[in-house]
Specification:
Layout lengths: L1 H10 L13 E2 L5 E10 L8 H18 L3 E8 L3 E8 L2 H11 L5 E4 L12
Antiparallel strand pairs: 1-2, 2-4, 2-5, 3-4
Length: 123
């Protein structure tokens, strides 16, 4: 059971959507979505197979489709024992709901307030 949860969580990483340059984007229903970074502690995450990651991705995408257009998975980063996911959502509660419905841990959920890059130094 624990392996299945780990597989589901890490599959979140295999689907990569474009990351927006802005923290907020307008959606079809004219509401505003915020960017969140989710830390998921998953021992052995970095050792998951491609098939396991694919299964996790499918589970996440299915849950998001059921939840509607108020939440979007952008992409995820898999490390040794953690997965860091970037989502757009109207609020933190939607991120928590997605984690619960998908059987994924959401050990920490942080709203992104500003995005910087090497280009920031040149501005």
């Amino acid at each position: 059971m624990r392996t299945i949860k780990l597989v589901l969580i890490l599959a979140l990483i295999t689907i990569n959507y474009a990351v927006g340059q802005q923290n907020q984007v307008a959606t079809e229903n004219n509401s505003t979505m915020k960017t969140y970074v989710i830390e998921r502690i998953i021992p052995g995450a970095g050792a998951l197979t491609a098939d396991q990651l694919k299964g996790i991705s499918r589970t996440s995408c299915t849950v998001i489709k059921e939840m509607g257009s108020k939440i979007e998975w952008q992409h995820s980063y898999v490390t040794g024992d953690k997965v860091y996911c970037v989502y757009k959502a109207e609020n933190k509660e939607l991120i928590e709901e997605h984690a619960k419905k998908g059987g994924f841990p959401a050990n920490s959920i942080s709203e992104v307030t500003t995005k910087i890059s090497p280009a920031t130094a040149e501005q």
